[in-house]
Design a protein that fits this description.
alpha/beta, Rossmann fold, OB fold (Dihydrolipoamide Acetyltransferase, E2P), five-stranded parallel beta sheet, five-stranded antiparallel beta sheet, 8 helices, 28% strand
Length: 271
């Protein structure tokens, strides 16, 4: 089972400890960090610590949970971090609209019921598993391999050969055409075509600039005018046009970059 890194921010120390006990009582392996102040929780995020899930109390002095969530999203976007899921803790339903606005994974009433906490943990784990197990079966002269999409940074075609450029820096080459594999690849919402010779994993994009995509590996990939719609797809992906594990079967996990508005300026360059 996947291990989760969980951040709890609640100015009521006992409430936070009860929530941590509920997490530990579930069958999910979790590392928990508990903070009494929003500023301390934000500082933890700013260190670049990997956090899968944030439980944020809405009503707190100095910085409330809604503002903390906004700041967390900003840090994740600015640092290019993988976004965390957010669950708000509240004593009433009055903040439901705010949690929806921030596209939180869920919100629960305090004190949280242990079973409700366990259910949320399982929903997030299931969503991650649904994403991580998708892939494509490929064959070379020496092997047949199921390649997980999460391993792929981008796909490139050169002279009737398809190169799967992997995030770890390695590559797998098959004799084929992009058209032959494209229908399978683009069923995964992370992938979009930006050039007749390139399909990129949008999770591995660092930024878009000068009519090109800059991957985290440093590789720069052109965006051709023919595929100018790629920019709109990327905006939709970042702002949560779809969501993982929901009824539509798609992915929520990159919606957390929704405050990345500065990227819109880059999009005008590639239209």
């Amino acid at each position: 089972m996947l291990e989760m890194n969980v951040l709890i921010c609640d100015d009521m120390r006992n409430d936070g400890l009860k929530l941590e006990q509920a997490i530990k009582a579930s069958d999910i392996e979790a590392n928990c960090w508990h903070f009494d102040k929003g500023s301390d929780a934000l500082s933890h995020i700013q260190t670049g610590a990997k956090v899968d899930l944030c439980f944020l109390d809405i009503v707190m002095p100095e910085m409330n949970g809604i503002e903390l969530a906004r700041q967390i999203r900003k840090v994740e976007t600015d640092k290019g971090m993988q976004a965390s899921e957010i669950v708000f803790l509240t004593t009433s339903n009055e903040f439901a609209s705010e949690s929806f606005e921030l596209k939180a994974f869920s919100y629960i009433l305090k004190p949280p019921e242990p079973q409700k906490v366990a259910n949320i943990l399982h929903e997030i784990i299931d969503a991650k598993k649904a994403l991580d197990t998708s892939g494509i079966l490929i064959s070379t002269k020496t092997m047949t391999k199921f390649l997980y999409f999460r391993e792929v940074s981008f796909i490139e075609v050169i002279n009737y050969k398809v190169y799967f450029r992997l995030i770890d820096g390695s590559e797998i080459v098959i004799v084929s055409s992009l058209g032959a594999i494209l229908p399978q690849v683009i069923t995964d919402k992370r992938f979009a075509q930006c050039h007749r010779s390139f399909v990129v994993n949008m999770d591995d994009i660092n930024k878009i600039q000068d009519n090109s995509v800059l991957m985290y590996s440093g590789r720069q990939i052109p965006i051709s005018r023919t595929y100018a719609g790629f920019c709109d797809k990327y905006i939709e992906y970042l702002t949560g046009g779809s969501k993982i594990g929901g009824k539509d079967g798609n992915s929520q996990h990159n919606r957390n970059k929704m405050e990345h508005f500065t990227i819109v300026n880059h999009f005008f360059d590639c239209q």
